Amino acid sequence: MSDFGDWYRSVPEITRYWLTGSVVASLLGRIGMFSPYTMHLDWQLFATKFHIWRPLTALFYYPVNPSSGFHWLFMLYLLYSYGKSTEKDVFTGRPADYLFMLIFNWISCTIVSFAVGIPFLLEPMVVSVLYVWCQLNKDMIVSFLFGAQFKAVYLPWVLVLFNMILRGTMVELAGVVVGHIYYFLMYSYPQEFGGASLIKTPQFLYQWFPSSVGGVHGFGSAPESRRPAPRNDGGHNWGRGQQLGSS
Questions:
Q1: Which of 202, 243, 209, 239 is nearest to 223 (CA)?
Q2: Is Acyltransferase among the key words of this record (predicted)?
Q3: Which residues are CB-neighbours of 7 under 8 A, at least 6 positions away?
Q4: What is the C-alpha R_g of the chain?
Q5: Quick one: which of 128, 135, 109, 125 has its CA closest to 179?
Q6: Could you give the CA distance from residue 181 to residue 188 in angstroms, rounded to a whole number?
Q7: What local confidence, expressed as pLDDT, does residue 213 receive?
Q8: Torsion of CA 133, 137, 142, 145, to 10 degrees
């Protein structure tokens, strides 16, 4: 148990809470502690019956059964791997900025899911975070199932295709859309048009989750290949590539 405790404490704080909530809520639903009917997204119930908790429960709960169990575990693995890397490497010492990205993506995923009828948010949320990581590590070589290797920029689309073939759905596409919206507003627009970021972390999040590096709040630098002109302020280490299906 000490080994598990050491591993659990090694997971960055916000990712650890998200991962724990997703595991606990899904397993409690699996053993019948509550009805799955009360957890999923439903626009009519949300808008007319004021079931305002549904966007939150749909974030953490996923219906686990014999046919969905492997996919649930796979999503948890992606959550752990890319949530950890994004929080620890991309948003190093800036938990407020990482939390804001999750909140922005959660609200966006909720809106998109209401529009297209997606009942649970685990898949689009995980893919939205993975998409941002992949955009910031475009040329990193990642490994997928069966040893396939390719650049990180293609990984979100591989997941969309993989899910479409195996499960006949394109839920991950919603996460790609949301991740692209965040990346465009936070990174692409300032780089390509020379303006300020169109979204910004609220000050109260900095008060609750103060930054531990530097004296200026921000979202870090985009990869060198995305900058409009070379500068001499040093690069940023975006972390190591992720290997899917391996520990």
A1: 239
A2: no
A3: none
A4: 18
A5: 128
A6: 10
A7: 64
A8: 30
